[in-house]
Fold:
Amino acid sequence: MELCGGEAVSADASNALKVTTGSSRFEASAEGSTVAHAARSLSETFALPAADDGDICHVFAINTVLSDRLEVTWELPGGPPEGEPAPKFTVLRMGERTLAAPDVAIVRFACRSATLSGSIPAHIRLGVESWSPTEPEGDPEELTDAYATVAHCFALALVKELGCENDGRLEPRASLAPA
Structure:
C-alpha cells in the first residue's frame, strides 16, 4: 500500500490499519508526508538541540472527518527508555522498548548510522496514535496488536531509510508477545 510515501506500509500493517480505523481505503498522503522526508528531517536536525521531534504523516480513512485520524510521529528523547510505563500499556519485545495500547503504540530504538552525526547512537521514539473524538471500537487486545504492528512497520521503514546498524534491533515482523 502506498501510504505515507512509497512502501512504508507492509501487508501486515495494511491489515492492522483496517483494525485500527475500520477502513481499508485511505486518503492520499500529503507530498511531504513520507518516511523518507522524516528521515531527512531527523538526520538534518539530529545535532540541533532545539529540534527534537516531527511528523511522519497523518492517516485518514476515506469519508472520515479530519479530527478522526492516526498520527505517525518521531521524537529524539535524548536517551534510552527509563522508568515504568503507564498501566494502560503492554510492553513488547521490539527495539529498546515498545509500548502498545488500544489507541497508541510507541517503538523506541537506538540508531547508529552514517546519516546521524556523533559516535553514540541516536535514541528514537516512533509513535502511532489515534486522534479521534470517540473511544476505539473493537477487542482491546486486537487493537493493541494492530497499533503495535503499524508502529513497528513505520519504525522499520525509518531505520532502513536512516541506514541504522542492525535495523535498530527491529525484526522484519512485529513481535507481539509481551516482554
In short: The mean pLDDT is 83. The longest helix spans residues 140-162.
